[in-house]
TrEMBL record, chains A, E:
<dbReference type="GO" id="GO:0005524">
    <property type="term" value="F:ATP binding"/>
</dbReference>
<dbReference type="InterPro" id="IPR003593">
    <property type="entry name" value="AAA+_ATPase"/>
</dbReference>
<keyword id="KW-0813">Transport</keyword>
<protein>
    <submittedName>
        <fullName>ABC transporter ATP-binding protein</fullName>
    </submittedName>
</protein>
<dbReference type="InterPro" id="IPR017871">
    <property type="entry name" value="ABC_transporter-like_CS"/>
</dbReference>
<keyword id="KW-0067">ATP-binding</keyword>
<dbReference type="GO" id="GO:0016887">
    <property type="term" value="F:ATP hydrolysis activity"/>
</dbReference>
<dbReference type="Pfam" id="PF00005">
    <property type="entry name" value="ABC_tran"/>
</dbReference>
<feature type="domain" description="ABC transporter">
    <location>
        <begin position="7"/>
        <end position="239"/>
    </location>
</feature>
From TrEMBL, chains B, D:
<dbReference type="GO" id="GO:0055085">
    <property type="term" value="P:transmembrane transport"/>
</dbReference>
<comment type="similarity">
    <text>Belongs to the binding-protein-dependent transport system permease family.</text>
</comment>
<feature type="transmembrane region" description="Helical">
    <location>
        <begin position="91"/>
        <end position="110"/>
    </location>
</feature>
<feature type="transmembrane region" description="Helical">
    <location>
        <begin position="32"/>
        <end position="50"/>
    </location>
</feature>
<feature type="transmembrane region" description="Helical">
    <location>
        <begin position="199"/>
        <end position="224"/>
    </location>
</feature>
<dbReference type="GO" id="GO:0005886">
    <property type="term" value="C:plasma membrane"/>
</dbReference>
<feature type="region of interest" description="Disordered">
    <location>
        <begin position="1"/>
        <end position="23"/>
    </location>
</feature>
<keyword id="KW-1003">Cell membrane</keyword>
<feature type="transmembrane region" description="Helical">
    <location>
        <begin position="122"/>
        <end position="144"/>
    </location>
</feature>
Length: 259, 283, 349, 283, 259
């Protein structure tokens, strides 16, 4: 194991075999290594296997074939250094927002006071101050998603897996969250794998963008984004960024006028 | 008014009305407050005059007035209170033990599939054995005192709770468990943070059934070999041809069951509040 | 086990603790009053240095099980059940008789035209339960009249007390087959009944007898003798002053009243107790002359055995020596009758 | 293997292995297939030799060999089969009626809050009345035949089912109900499309408890007033001091309960399949 | 009632009053009329009350104050002519995808065969052909959302309320779905109220865009989009479209580079 192959996916295959219906080949021959501290985004059409890939990395779903290693360890069950933002917020309805966010710290029995403070900071960061004592059903969809992001960050995991964390957010909040995420990432040195539907977002945030083909997901291209860091939003107006966006978009056959 | 309700009458304001009209509103919003007593009065009157009209003999079905009379007599007798105390003790102890054992065993069983598959047949088989038939043996094994009745109450309240605990612990949402798993939760933590809260509606159903059966168990235990307790008093009143007295005891047992039921529902509203609040009202 | 019996009571006259199993789930004006309550309250047990407790068991079978397993030391159980127990190798043994006159009797509504067994063809007979002494009695009763109990009559379980009375009044059954004391309770409630005569065939079939564990009987003969003596003293007292016995019964077993006042209940309960006492004392003669308590003749055992066998409760013959230990009765009858009679005559409280 | 399971052993392939190794795999993947019989044999042997060693008398606890002997005797007796048939009939009929009534009443009750608040106290109160105490009245009201036992079985299996039905119908997800409401669903449609499927885990728990209690109810009913049925046979064997024969009847009752339990579980796996398939295995 | 005020919202106020926590003012003094056959989008920051507004229109949530009418009728309960796409897909786990989509037709007891056919067409349109017999948990997030869209369209409702229907879709699918939605809308003459986070999407689709202010949601501006119809995706590259997008974006303080 080296720093250069902190996350290692070799010849990964995944086939779902439900009891009552036909099997679905979700992923096919995925090969990918992620450096320690790298920021990698995964883009691809709906249903191509992005969530499946993240769940396998998280140790939540068994693979059909191939090998997956994180920090040199075979992933057969969830590893403690991994944090995850789920596609659906998955908050616990019997806990207040604050207690929901504290779940990872509670599970890993981390220092209470320190993490309470951190949770409070994160809530402030995502604009949920004042909602600490509310219950999930009292929050809007986007607010729940933001709470889910706080939860994934509260224990400062070394590896962060994010499944469309900003999907339910408006443009302004999304941009703001992108900038903040970059800041947190820079400060903490986390390794991040992010699934997103926004190609500009992927370009803005990532060191490399993995483009998956439609189901069964294969790697269509891996695009290194060589924009200097630290990045500001304005970098996205640059031609170089535009080239990256267009290049990735070309895989999608999309006009790029809506998204 | 819950915040997610479906409107099917002219929408009411979400804000509570100013304090002054509270009491009056309560009666309108919770008609059970007058319905329950009304129904009660109607039933009692129908019973009273129905039995008179149809000339039903008191030893077949005593009239409410006779029952009330008998009840007054009983309540004035210090012996009665000691009977009540004995049965309450037996039922409560049996309930706690039976329900506690069901929660422990149910938890254990549902954690490990093999254990469930191995033990469940025995538990079901044992449960189908009529405890009343075993009662003479119960008495031989556990003596004629409190223990055999407590065991009876425990055994009979155990099974409904067990089935509900197992089913309830199973009902947890897979996504929530996955979420906890990613954050490194142990089985115990998953149990505490997701399985148990998800199982609460089942557990409360189990408790509700369990307490009723615990009281029944204690009473039936007393039928078989006791010299005190409400079950014994039932036998005695019946033996003495005091059917009104027997019904008075039945009324007391009903009140016991009712009280226990309300305590459990209250607990449920406190402990499983989120279920109440996300409930759809009027749909 | 619930018995506090003192295992070291082998020595003559040593203090001992005993548990008496009442072979019924309720306490009523029967043996537990006439025998136990009186013996306890009047100090007859104390005179014998006995401390006696009671437990209720759900019938004779359960009582015998309790005695055999050591949960109790002595009971008054149905003699047929004792025979059945002995046949199934349950270690119990009868040591003295209690109910000597056949307690079961047929009863009909006062306006009924039924007069005897021969009239019962096609009728419904109410029994306590099909697994109780009243079913075999009903079968034997009709069989004695030449009917086939399996075909000519129908037995229906009606229990004792209110529901039995209701079943008869409602016409669900034509005749009841209960024991006399149960009828007394029914009559106390204001229902009048007419009784059919038992054929002579039932004379001498024994009902309740005292039974104890067979295994340690030899070691405990002394204790049991003392128990029997106290018990028979109490019986003599009760036979001579049932009202006093009943009052004592209320003191020892206040639960009999179940909330009612003693004065209100006394007349009825005395009647019930008298009905029971009649079955437990000689059919003729003056109460003050009653003697030879607990004796059961070999002929009576034979008759009882034949009856039990016909009822299906035993399948073969039980050797008399296995079921009956008459050796304690001499000691049991060795008491000062006059003192008891005196007490009965002058009892106040 | 469910598709959403959490890996906690080296991940297995999702594809089933080729047919040839199926049978062998079954035993490894479902160890209960040999565990249940093993435990059974161990328990029976321990019982047999334990009672011999400790010199437990047969009238306190008969040995398995004696029970088997008695069982053989019973099974050879055509009368026994008619007893079995009677009790099965009573229990099944009572179960169907009790559980059916509970589903109907539970549905009705849980639809209208006022009805629930008004009726529930009476139902709980009635349930706490020991049915055994009422049995004489039952017999008076419903006669000595099948009916009174069926009523007994129905009444006793009714309550656990009712509580579970009410709790289950309440457990439906508010968002799903809103979704249906928008599309104009009537209460009946909401009930059929969401409430009922959501309640299935509760309903099956209720059925599982209900069938066991229905058998108990029938037997207890027979204790009180019957001339046939396994309950009557229990009384009869007990009265005749045939304790081994009594245990043989208990064994038969257990087997009845077990069979019913398995039928219900099978039904559950068919009808509530989605719950099985989204289940997290091994977590 | 006139065709011009097919949907009428007057002085609408909404305050949530949960039992256990502080009240939240979600909407304040909303006034809006929608013409029959109009396409109106609602944009606004996360948590500003968009979902709340749709739920009140749908008759799912009681209002605190004001009046809401659809086709001249006071909305006090769900009206049969309204269809809705929910923010979360809310499929029934015990029904196959096909049966999920047929729910509205089943509820309204519409002609079976006709609607089966329509369901099949819609599934094809959203790219779910082949998944009819699958159960919801076998679908990816985006696929579930697409199934939810089919369900809202199957019975051809006169009024269509859509709560971020395309949030979980990739750029290509999203653009394609936008075009298809416009086609369906044109052909059917439906009145549509769409909540979206994508400002370009709102501009592309709508006759008017309602911009809500942050919580409590008030109407910040209503922007009429005067682009000729029928529209093609290319219209979004035009300057006029750009002006609209920038104008709406100005309310959000967003750079507009990510979304
Ligand atoms: N539990 C499951 N059982 C069966 N098939 C599944 C399961 N989960 C996902 N699939 C199938 O696997 C494929 C990939 O799903 P996945 O959720 O990974 O897609 P995705 O890339 O995340 O899509 P989206 O962008 O829509 O979320 C889909 O075709 C889906 O139908
Ligand atoms: N059931 C509820 N109980 C209490 N408060 C609620 C409830 N639903 C929503 N809210 C509050 O109302 C406000 C508006 O919520 P709403 O869901 O309408 O926002 P939204 O505009 O749809 O946001 P998003 O874009 O994140 O989905 C939020 O502050 C939220 O906390
Ligand atoms: Mg996904
Ligand atoms: Mg929303």
């Amino acid at each position: 194991m080296s720093e250069d192959s902190w996350i290692e996916v070799v010849g990964l295959d995944k086939r779902y075999q439900p009891r009552r219906s036909a099997p679905t080949q979700a992923l096919s021959d995925i090969n990918l290594t992620v450096r320690r501290g790298e920021f990698v985004s995964v883009v691809g059409p709906s249903g191509c296997g992005k969530t499946t890939l993240l769940k396998i990395l998280a140790g939540l779903s068994p693979k059909t074939d191939g090998a997956v290693r994180i920090a040199g360890r075979e992933v057969t069950k969830p590893l403690p250094e991994v944090g995850m933002v789920f596609q659906a917020p998955t908050l616990l309805p019997w806990r207040t927002i604050f207690d929901n966010i504290m779940v990872p710290a509670e599970i890993q029995k981390l220092d209470r006071d320190k993490h309470r403070e951190r949770a409070q900071q994160l809530l402030e960061l995502v604009g949920l101050t004042g909602f600490e004592r509310k219950y999930p059903h009292e929050l809007s969809g986007g607010m729940q998603q933001r709470a889910g992001i706080c939860r994934a960050l509260v224990h400062d995991p070394a590896v962060l897996l994010m499944d469309e964390p900003f999907g339910a957010l408006d443009a302004m909040t999304r941009e703001y969250m992108n900038v903040e995420l970059l800041r947190i990432w820079r400060e903490s040195g986390q390794t991040v794998v992010l699934v997103t539907h926004s190609i500009p977002e992927a370009v803005f945030l990532s060191d490399r963008v993995v483009v998956l083909s439609p189901r069964p997901g294969r790697i269509a291209e891996i695009v290194p984004i060589e924009l200097e860091r630290p990045r500001e939003l304005s970098v996205m107006s640059s031609d170089r960024a535009g080239v990256y966006v267009d290049r990735i978009r070309s895989h999608f056959n999309a006009a790029g006028v809506i998204d | 008014m819950a915040t997610t309700d479906v409107v099917d009458k002219p929408p009411r304001t979400d804000a509570s009305p100013p304090g002054g009209t509270r009491r009056r509103l309560d009666l309108r919003e919770r008609p059970q407050l007058w319905l329950v007593p009304t129904v009660f009065v109607v039933v009692v009157l129908a019973w009273e005059y129905g039995t008179q009209l149809l000339e039903v003999d008191a030893y077949v079905l005593p009239r409410p007035s006779q029952i009330v009379e008998a009840l007054q007599r009983q309540l004035g007798d210090p012996q009665f209170w000691s009977h009540l105390w004995v049965t309450s003790q037996e039922a409560l102890l049996g309930f706690v033990i039976g329900v506690g054992a069901a929660v422990l065993l149910g938890t254990f069983i549902s954690q490990i599939k093999v254990v469930e598959a191995t033990l469940m047949p025995y538990i079901v088989a044992f449960q189908t054995v009529p405890k009343v038939a075993l009662a003479p043996l119960f008495v031989l094994w556990f003596g004629f005192g409190l223990t055999s009745k407590v065991v009876m109450a425990a055994v009979i309240s155990f099974f409904p709770m067990l089935v509900n605990v197992i089913e309830g612990l199973r009902a947890a949402d897979a996504d929530r468990i996955q979420m906890l798993t990613v954050f490194g939760a142990s089985k115990t933590q998953i149990f505490r943070m997701v399985r148990l809260p998800s199982a609460l509606p089942f557990i409360f159903a189990g408790l509700d059934i369990g307490i009723v059966f615990a009281i029944l168990g204690a009473v039936v235990g007393e039928f078989i070999g006791a010299k005190e307790g409400l079950g014994y008093l039932l036998l005695q009143t019946n033996y003495n041809f005091d059917i009104a007295g027997m019904f008075a005891v039945l009324v007391v047992l009903s009140v016991m069951g009712l009280l226990a039921h309300f305590v459990i529902r209250l607990l449920q509203r406190r402990l499983a509040f989120w279920a109440e609040e996300t409930k759809v009202i009027g749909a | 086990g619930g018995s506090g019996s003192d295992e070291s009571s082998g020595a003559e006259g040593a203090p001992a603790e005993l548990t008496f199993a009442i072979a019924s789930a309720v306490i009523g004006p029967k043996e537990e009053v006439a025998m136990f309550a009186v013996a306890k309250e009047l100090g007859y047990f104390a005179e014998e240095k006995l401390t006696v407790e009671t437990i209720n068991t759900d019938g004779s079978v359960a009582a015998l099980q309790a005695v055999a397993s050591g949960s109790a030391d002595v009971t008054a159980a149905d003699s047929g059940s004792i025979l059945g127990a002995v046949e199934k190798n349950v270690p119990v043994k009868a040591i003295g008789g209690l109910v000597q006159n056949w307690p079961w009797v047929m009863a009909v509504k006062p306006d009924s035209t039924l007069t005897g067994g021969a009239d019962l063809r096609g009728k419904k007979i109410g029994v306590i339960s099909l697994a109780s002494g009243s079913a075999p009695y009903a079968r034997a009763y009709v069989a004695a009249a030449g009917l086939d109990p399996a075909k000519d009559v129908e037995l229906l379980p009606v229990g004792v007390g209110a529901q039995a009375a209701a079943a008869l009044n409602d016409g669900q059954v034509d005749v009841l087959a209960l024991y006399t004391q149960a009828y007394a309770v029914i009559e106390n409630s204001g229902t009048t009944l007419k009784y059919l005569d038992n054929p002579d065939a039932f004379d001498g079939i024994r009902s309740l007898s005292f039974a104890v564990g067979a295994r340690d009987l030899d070691d405990k003969k002394d204790v049991h003798t003392r128990f029997l003596r106290a018990a028979y003293k109490a019986m003599l007292f009760s036979a001579n002053n049932p009202e006093a016995a009943m009052r004592i019964g209320y003191q020892v077993f206040p639960q009999i009243l179940a909330g009612k006042s003693a004065d209100e209940q006394l007349a009825n309960d005395v009647r019930s107790l008298q009905a029971w006492l009649k079955t437990a004392t000689p059919a003729s003669g003056e109460p003050k002359d009653f003697a030879d308590w607990g004796a059961i003749t070999e002929a009576e055992w034979t008759k009882t055995q034949a009856y039990t066998k016909e009822a299906g409760q035993i399948t073969g013959d039980v050797a008399l020596a296995d079921v009956w230990e008459p050796g304690l009765l001499a000691g049991a009858n060795d008491f000062d009758k006059a003192a008891v009679l005196d007490k009965a005559a002058n009892y106040t409280k």
